[in-house]
Amino acid sequence: MLRRGSVVLSPAAILFVVLAAFAIVPSMTVTVAGADGFPPFQELPQIKVTNISFSNDNPKEGQNVTITVVIFNNGTGDVPNVSLTIAYDYTNITTVANLTVPAKGNRTVEVTWKAIKFTHVMSAIPSLQGVPLTNAGMTKELAVAATPIGNAYVVFAALVVVLLVFLAAVAAPSVWEHMRKK
User: Which of 5, 53, 85, 156 has the fewest CB atoms within 10 Å of its CB?
Assistant: First the structure.
């Protein structure tokens, strides 16, 4: 039951009012179907990331890596206003907006990223009107090696020289004192 002020309407009364309204206006029509009797059809965009590749599959930290992403449109019409977010480990590298992916064709996007040491999950997720199409995205792993510190023998020799200089500096005052006493 609905209460409005002091009037109480039962569900049966509401149904009677609705049916009476249709009886009074029999010429009123509502069209929700297409000309063939079926609802109007609008093809959903059929885009999908089909490839992620890297300019260097074994980069060292600090190196620039070009990430290339290919988006394919399997639909019969161009898909405008596509955005593509490229990320590593859920951290955005960039979002490229206002892309158009041609019907039955590809759109290639390239971005440059400065490699960070770690094994990363690189991802490319397309969006339409701000809505991510997560099932249309793709991920690929990329291992980035640490930058080598140089020749280990040279580093070890340098540490030995530093240690000898330090020991000499510590021992020098006591040798001087010992020689002075003689």
Answer: 5
Interacting residues of 56 by C-beta distance below 8 A, sequence separation 6+ = 63, 65
Buried b / exposed e over 18-33, threshold 16 CB at 10 Å, is: eeeeeeeeeeeeeeee
Q: Using a CB cutoff of 8 Å and minimum separation of 24, what contacts does 92-98 make? A: 93/67
pLDDT of residue 180: 67
Highest mean pLDDT out of 47-51, 151-155, 159-163: 47-51
Q: Which of 158, 181, 163, 161 is nearest to 173 (CA)?
A: 181
What average pLDDT does the segment 120-147 reach? 94
Give residue limits of the domains in the chain.
47-144, 150-182
List the structure tokens of 145. Answer: 């090696």
Q: Are 52 and 138 in contact (CB under 8 A)?
A: yes
Q: Are 65 and 117 in contact (CB under 8 A)?
A: no
Mean residue pLDDT of the chain comes to 82
**pTM score > 0.70 for this model?**
no
Contact 101, 73 (CB under 8 A): yes
Q: Distance from CA of residue 106 to its chain's centroid? A: 19
